Amino acid sequence: MKILHVIYGLPVNFGGPTEGLANLARAQAQRGDDVTVLPCRFTAGPQTLPAGRDARLHVLEPVTYGRLLWYDARVRRRIRELARGCDIVHVHGTWRYHLLAAAAAAGEYGIPYVIRPAGNLGVVSRSGKALRKWLYLRLVERRPFERAAAVHCTSLKEQRELAGLPLRVRRCFIVPQPVSAPPSDTRHDRSALRELCPAIAPADKVLLYLGRICSVKNLPIVLEAFLNLRRDFERWHLVLAGYHEDVRLVERLRQRAAQAGAAGHVWLPGLVRGAAKTACLARADLFAQASKHENFGLSVAEALQFGVPCVASDGVALAADVQQHGAGLMCPPTVDDFTANLRTLMADETYRNRCAAAARRLAERFAPAAVAEALEREYRVCLGEPISGQAARTASGVGGRGD
What we know:
Elements: E1 2-7, H1 16-30, E2 34-39, E3 52-54, E4 57-59, H2 73-83, E5 88-92, H3 97-109, E6 113-116, H4 123-127, H5 130-147, E7 150-153, H6 156-163, E8 172-174, H7 190-196, E9 205-210, H8 219-229, E10 236-241, H9 247-259, E11 266-270, H10 274-283, E12 286-289, H11 298-305, E13 310-313, H12 319-324, E14 328-331, H13 335-346, H14 349-363, H15 368-382, E15 400-401
Helix pairs in contact: 1-15, 2-3, 3-5, 7-10, 8-13, 11-14
């Protein structure tokens, strides 16, 4: 199958959507598909996929420095060139012209296209600049959505929130984000963590958050909960690792930790990649995610891959699965609730070990190969190919069709 992925950009600091696409594209190429990825806009900093060709995977150079808020002839022309001869076009993200251009090109050639909103249509996400987004969706993006062969949601939460919009989509399916398996041996990566957080001793415990440092992540809640527990758990450290998107928030977090006398136990090392990211996940004893909204929760899934128990807010799509499968706890995003749930797991190593085993089992659902297989089934439905028997049903709970 020849697949074209179109996305606004591929910077690492965009978080889950770009990381998930990188994992997916590699897995599809390994399955034997011819995969092309077009990031439409030049973005600064490290990218989740470097430009170039690697066997069946071809990542193109971006075509514009514009913000894609409206028409861009270069983007339109490039997508038209690439779409010709493809079997399917998969568009990632909304609120930008790349979606309109990809939908138009696919329609011109009679190619089915799939839209992954990447959380942009969630209740919390669309509440910012609500009137502007409502008008843009009704007047501009409504037609591309309603003409799409399908809308790709990564969780039941995202699908339910999409159902509340004035869109008559033809079909909606659920296939989660793919998460790369952890390295088989992470011992050599511990030095990377020591460089970032030098005061963490081998016998100390680590409460980890991994993701962008911004307001939607509710990090003051995690910090206050940790500070409430600090006297009872003196050997624990809090690591808030991720891109400093909101530098004012970063400074407030640092000041609050210093004010509480916990500066030597609270770490904000910034964006971590490669060995440093692996080191954080391999060293973590517990993971915290208090976000107001996550349409999937890629960092939670990454923690599960490493067997790290999680405490996640009910705004995180994966939180219900975490609790249901015994891989951690779900609670409202309040200081009191996070304090109580973190205490439960921090105080009981045996309980954490049980959760760790459950976390690894749950994480098998997000293996890139399984996700790529589930997406291929959905693509074939979009292409009108008959799928019968076991192949038509979702294997291992990886995907599913919405009503």
